[in-house]
Design brief:
Elements (H helix, E strand, L loop, with lengths): L3 H23 L10 E10 L2 E11 L4 E5 L6 H8 L5 E8 L2 E2 L9 E4 L13 H10 L10 H13 L15 H14 L4 E5 L7 H18 L2 E5 L12 E5 L3 E5 L1 H4 L2 H8 L3 E6 L4 E6 L15 E3 L20
Helix pairs in contact: 1-4, 3-4, 3-5, 4-5
The protein binds adenosine-5'-triphosphate (ATP) and magnesium ion.
């Protein structure tokens, strides 16, 4: 027999599910093209100077993709280009099968910006930031309904910041700010989630909570996810598809084919080393200096250098499962 607490938890989960996906999507996965992203020969940048050149990328509906690359590589620029927020020099972007129009973010796409890029002086509470996610869905309301506020409360609760709704966004920790933006993206019932370093500046438990939530959204609701990360071992290695970015696409594929010394060194412009931890079967990536735990002179009985597998051809239909985080 279910306890009152379990029933309450069930109600809360259902409320979050409805708040995030609505009744019509709760039982049906999105249609094939609705969550796809197609980038063709894109060159874009700022003030006429291209940051990215010749980028072609196909993200099928329901895929979970990680973008990796060094600072300044153009990862944020690529995400923002998908939203129509970066001036394009040439090329084409389609989201959900429709061309992206500059200055007009596509519908049903949730965006979690990189925390460092947000203007924190904007006077707004957490609840109002999240409500903006409803407004960007094309339904601007001068004041929220009771239902809207309940939806916001449910999502904040799910993200572990239920008590912060009335706080000024500026007065939160980095991790709390990040979760506020995740809540804003989720309340718009996205088919696609674009996340810029959603796990930077959060502790390990919060990082795992966020990743598990993303895995659930991807697996259970078919939400397409594209996220950037600097965490190669803890995050990127677990994703089914990884795109290496450095002013263009250097390589892409499953981590088992991407995590090679050659590809990562080319991507990051510094010598990288990949070892297999035979105890866990995990690939581990590190800079190959003479310092640090994976330095050239270090020896580890249970670690062995991985022979680079041949680069696999890009096959967009491939969707390996997300590996447990
Ligand atoms: N608004 C802007 N105006 C002019 N140049 C910009 C602007 N935003 C980014 N850039 C430049 O574009 C390049 C790519 O920046 P971008 O933010 O896309 O890199 P990134 O890969 O996301 O880096 P990080 O890992 O540090 O977030 C950098 O050289 C950056 O200085
Ligand atoms: Mg960035």
């Amino acid at each position: 027999m279910r306890t009152a607490e379990a029933r309450e938890t069930g109600h809360m989960e259902e409320r979050v599910r409805r708040a995030v996906f609505g009744n019509q999507l709760a039982s049906a996965r999105p249609q094939a093209a609705a969550g796809s992203i197609e980038v063709r020969d894109l060159s874009c940048g700022y003030h006429g100077a291209p940051v990215l050149t010749g980028v072609s990328l196909h993200v099928p509906s329901g895929q979970f993709v990680g973008l990796i690359g060094p600072s300044g590589a153009g990862k944020t620029t690529l995400l923002r280009a998908m939203l129509g927020l970066v001036p394009r020099v040439s090329g084409e972007i389609r989201v959900g099968g429709k061309p992206v129009v500059p200055g007009r973010p596509p519908a049903r796409i949730g965006y979690v910006p990189q925390v460092e890029t947000v203007d924190w002086t904007f006077p707004v509470t957490v609840e109002n930031v999240v409500l903006m996610g409803k407004a960007s869905n094309g339904r601007w309301l001068p004041w929220p309904s009771r239902e809207d506020r309940r939806d916001v409360a449910a999502i904040l609760e799910r993200l572990g910041i239920g008590d912060l709704g009335s706080r000024h966004i500026r007065d939160l920790s980095g991790g709390q700010q990040q979760r506020t933006f995740l809540a804003r993206a989720l309340i718009g019932r996205p088919r696609i989630l674009i996340l810029d370093e959603p796990t930077a500046s959060v502790d390990i438990k919060t990082r795992d909570d966020i990743l598990h939530l993303l895995v659930e959204l991807n697996r259970d609701e078919g939400v397409t996810i594209v996220m950037t990360t600097h965490e190669l071992n803890a995050v990127a290695a677990h994703l089914p598809w990884v795109v290496c970015v450095n002013r263009g696409v250097v390589a892409q594929g499953a981590p088992s084919s991407i995590f090679t010394s050659a590809i990562l060194s080319r991507t990051f412009g510094t010598e990288m080393r990949v070892v297999l931890d035979e105890q866990t079967g995990n690939l581990l990536v590190a800079e190959a200096g003479s310092h640090g735990p994976f330095g050239r002179r270090a020896t580890h009985g249970h670690l062995r250098v991985v022979a680079p597998p041949a680069e696999l051809p890009y096959s967009p239909g491939d969707q390996a499962a997300v590996q447990p985080f």
